[in-house]
Each structure stands twice: as C-alpha cells, then as structure tokens.
Input
Amino acid sequence: MKKVYSNDITMDPSGFVLLSDYVPHIIQEIRYFSTYNFIGERIDGYEEPCALITKEAARALKAVSNELFVQGYRLKVFDAYRPACAVRSFVLWGIEDQDKRMKEYFYPSMEKDELFVNGYIAKRSSHSRGSTVDLTLLDMKTGKEVDMGSPFDFFGEISRPDYKGITKEQYENRMLLRDAMIRNGFVPFEGEWWHFTLKDEPYPDVYFEFSVSSDNIKQASLV
Output
C-alpha cells in the first residue's frame, strides 16, 4: 500500500489508527466532514466523520482521556489527521474563492488575506503529519461542551490560550485541557486553545495525502 509520490508526501497510512479504537470514551465531531466549518462545505479528503491519527499520538491521547475522565470530562475531537489535499483546498479558498458565507461565524473581524498573515491558513499544516489534534472537553455532568470562551476554529485574538479578556472560569477550563495535554507529551499552539501536536511526533518531516476513511486503516492493517 505504501506509495510516495514526492520527496515528503506519502499515501501510506500504515502508521495510523482510528482514534476511537484507542480512546473508547472519545467524542467525535469532525467539522471538515460537515458543512459547519469556516468554508461552509465538506472539505476535500474527508470521506468519513472519523478521527485518524498516528499510533503514538493515539496512545498519548488515551492517557489524557484517562486522566480527565476520572475528573468528570470526556475528550471531544474536531479534527486530527488532515490530508494534504484538504490543506491545499484551504489555501485555494483563501486566495481565489470570493465566498464569505461563514465569515460572521468564524472570522468576523478579519478579511481572507489576514487569515494567512495571522497563521490561520498556511500552505502546510502539522495536521497532515498525523500527530496533531483539535479538541475540547465535554462535562459528563451536563452533557455539554465546557465553555472555553470562544468556539473551535474562531479566528481571532480571543482564541489564544493566554487571552485574558474572558472569564476566570473560561480561562481555567482552557488551562485544564492545556495542562493535561502538556503532561502527556503534547505541545500547544499559541494561537488556538484547541490545537496540540505530539512533541515526539513520529513523522516530523512527512506529510500524508490519503483520505480520512476507516477503510484506509483497515486495509493497512492487513498488509
């Protein structure tokens, strides 16, 4: 199944797993499979609403999940592995597409070109290396997402983990997630409270292209 078609982009999913197989309590709301995202339509490369991730990152997330589960929380994942083709579609949308239908929900204070300047859209994403995850917490008592002060994929200063213009409770919620992720080997991204990358990621220089599909993982396991 392994197929490499450029110096650092590959179609080989053999080092990946279904996150739900490793973290049984995980909740998945894969936004780029849906139309509720900053573009407003399903993104190229997302064939199923499932989170794929490297085995190493999955093991680390299991430890995070176990730690927070005993405190009354479950992890909720919005995105994990992101195919390189999806990242290219973000770039093309930002450069060429005049559609701004989701602007009021995700980037109300910015124009499209500012999304590049501020690092929200880039030609390459750590997600395509397979060990980055976007996630939040769900409170098992209420059955609702924990209030983090801003929604996932909201592009603005308010989404910075250290932003002080939110309530004390919202800030503490961010730190609860951040501290658990750091303790278990993840590095936070300073522009987004939901974004973390495994510190010792297994493919630091490789970007993957295969689609988000459970079949890819099942087929790879048979090879």
